[in-house]
TrEMBL record:
GO molecular function terms attached to this record: metalloendopeptidase activity
Residue span(s) of domain M23ase beta-sheet core: 92-190
Superkingdom of origin: Bacteria
Entry-linked InterPro entries: Cell_wall_metabolism_enzyme, Dup_hybrid_motif, M23ase_b-sheet_dom
Protein name, entry field: Peptidoglycan DD-metalloendopeptidase family protein
């Protein structure tokens, strides 16, 4: 399997948020144990969690927050979706989150077709989710967009062509987005492992090496 950077070396990419994220418009957000503010925030209450996230953006004067690729996170205890045996608890985040206002449009970074989509409903889940399939130089890989608006799924069809730079979904509001502060979960996969309309977005510590080979860093399609 080629590295993502080599595969896309001479390929034009459209930024997923319509503009490249950098210090002028975004800040890095930390939801790891290093963030000493998190224990003071009731993350089980989405409105409280939302005020915290957007308070950080307002204080910084930025439109977007970003981060999370293979970050050890402490926010998944808010939902039973991630619960397993304690030794195998899934709290390693495998995609990148981009936090922003509900309704913010999302764009296809490359030409694609709709592989699958599903409303993964439930507190702490993805909510409305779209998976696109890309083929570059004969190599197929996939991009996942989670926490969308329900309306984004209404007229979608499997196999539908999506052009690079096309606006095809939006950051969804809570609770329909899986009951999270509005953000995009953006993740790349070389292999969907048989999944349709869904793919694990977090893994356990023991599975980090396995999933790092499957989920490359999507920063090249975001900026920063």
């Amino acid at each position: 399997m080629p590295s993502l950077e080599n595969l896309l070396l001479d390929v034009s990419i459209f930024p997923v948020m319509g503009k490249w994220l950098d210090a002028s418009n975004s800040i890095k957000m930390d939801f790891s144990p290093k963030n000493k503010e998190l224990p003071t925030v009731d993350i089980s209450n989405t409105e409280t969690f939302n005020r915290y996230v957007f308070g950080l953006l307002e204080k910084a004067g930025k439109r977007f927050g970003h981060g999370g690729y293979f970050e050890h996170r402490v926010i998944y205890s808010r939902s039973a979706v991630f619960a397993t045996q304690e030794s195998d608890f899934r709290d390693i985040h495998m995609g990148v989150d981009i936090w922003g206002e509900a309704g913010t449009p999302v764009f296809a970074p490359l030409d694609a077709m709709v592989h699958s989509f599903h409303d993964n409903a439930g507190f702490g889940n993805y909510g409305p989710t779209i998976i696109l399939q890309h083929k570059i130089k004969g190599t197929v890989f996939f991009s996942l967009y989670g926490h969308l608006a329900k309306s984004d799924l209404v007229h979608l069809k499997i196999g539908q062509a999506i052009s690079k730079g096309e606006k095809f979904c939006h950051l969804g509001p809570f609770p329909e987005n899986g009951d999270w502060p509005p953000h995009l979960h953006f993740q790349l996969m070389w292999d969907l492992m048989g999944n349709h309309g869904d793919f694990p977005g977090v893994c356990s510590h023991r599975d980090i090496d396995k999933f790092k080979t499957i989920c490359p860093d999507p920063a090249i399609m975001i900026g920063h």
